[in-house]
Amino acid sequence: MLSCSIRSLRRLKCCCNKRWSSLILAKGYCFSKPKVVPSFCNTDIKFSRFYVWERQSSLRQWRRRSLYTVTDTYEAIELALDSVVKIFTVSSSPNYFLPWQNKSQRETMGSGFVIPGKKILTNAHVVADHTFVLVRKHGSPTKYRAEVQAVGHECDLAILVVESPEFWEGMNFLELGDIPFLQEAVAVVGYPQGGDNISVTKGVVSRVEPTQYVHGATQLMAIQIDAAINPGNSGGPAIMGNKVAGVAFQNLSGAENIGYIIPVPVIKHFIAGIEESGKYMGFCSMGLSCQPTENVQLRNHFKMQPHMTGVLVSKINPLSDAYGVLKKDDIILEFDGVPIANDGTVPFRNRERITFDHLVSMKKPNETALVKVLRNGGEHAFTITLQPLQPLVPVHQFDKLPSYYIFAGLVFVPLTQPYLHEYGEDWYNTSPRRLCELALRELPKRAGEQLVILSQVLMDDINAGYERLAELQVKNVNGIEIKNLKHLCQLVENCSRESLRIDLDDDRVVALNYESARIATSRILERHRIPSRMSIDLLSEQNSLLMDSAE
């Protein structure tokens, strides 16, 4: 890859020997003309001399840059040899259709690098649902046991620790740098597929903007580079100079040599939260759904003055602090004194723009923000406390067992997106349409709320005829609206009536003789070799309630 880079530089150098005007058109160079030309000078001669000087200066810069790039790559290689490790992960994901069992284990490999504090930084998806993790240094045949200290699935970052003192001998800790500018060169180091040894690929920064993080399904700042990031590269550092500019984590499918790295601000936010609280805290959100105000008639309708810019508040999450402060149809003009454009962006560096969500996500939990809004033609300033917010239907459920409750062969589970993912890669079209709409659009009304569904019916005489009611949402148990799966479990377990009634979506009803259903539950579990009628979290809750009642 290094030789390819040198050839590219040689081609640039050869291009410079051609007529400079064609080079400007081909490469998009911008040579600024002098603003003031003395009247006694011949304009054509003046411009010609100026362009020749600019061209010579640019050639000198390109030569210096080519030498610096080659040197910089070798420095990156030297740093990487004692800093980057290969990670071997054995993982086992839950089966959400059969939540009492796991899928078969699989082995994956990734990359990571050591940071101050004797820690290894890598991607969360490298160690997701892990059961066993090993790491290996460059040039060493020995694999060392590693433990996962903290994981942030939203930002796709994880921290590993290795207890063995032998592992840390001769290791070089990498320092975090800054966000690189456009066209700055970075070297991505890791262990991609296709070989067992360390690999170094070079690229330049193409774009810096909020991007969808595939693993955590969140939108955070990311850096696009033109270096190939292949499976196995994940978790490796992108080095610029002698510091880390980001962590490689995903690529763009269907495109060649378009990769993404997690920038330093996101990494520092993740690490700072762990150092302050001892655990991953998440990224803050205002809990708003906003609409751009680029249409002139829309701005006039909401009484925006010509000098005003901002975004229209469409929805507010009832669990956010903004719910009691902001209102629907408010226009957010500023966030912490930074004006918001009509397209929802704010200034970022030199003539770059970024969505204002980035300013929100970089806030620490329980931090406040000053928000300036336009309401009914009048300007108001409000202070809002920011917190990480969880959706009503969880987007991911890594590193934890799914919850379930079985009664009379009826399998109840909370609705999650991983459950819908069991319908295949095209789950959006193949999963039940009603459940899919609930997962993507419904907002929580209170803390701890879950959407509980009847996942399937394990056939028995007690539930014959109810098999067509699978995949419907559970609404009430004996006339009481359920809050979550734990609440449903309590209502069923503590039922004192002869008949148990469960109301489902679409006005469907399940009625069971309670005692007969309890007896049937045991034989159904035995028939299907299910170890328990409820998941570990619900079982622990039931045991706690029994102990409290005994006291």
From TrEMBL:
Keywords: Hydrolase, Protease, Serine protease. GO terms for biological process: proteolysis. It comes from the Eukaryota. One of its GO terms (molecular function) is serine-type endopeptidase activity. Residues 393-537 form the Protease Do-like PDZ domain. Belongs to the peptidase S1C family. This is Protease Do-like PDZ domain-containing protein. It comes from Gossypium arboreum.
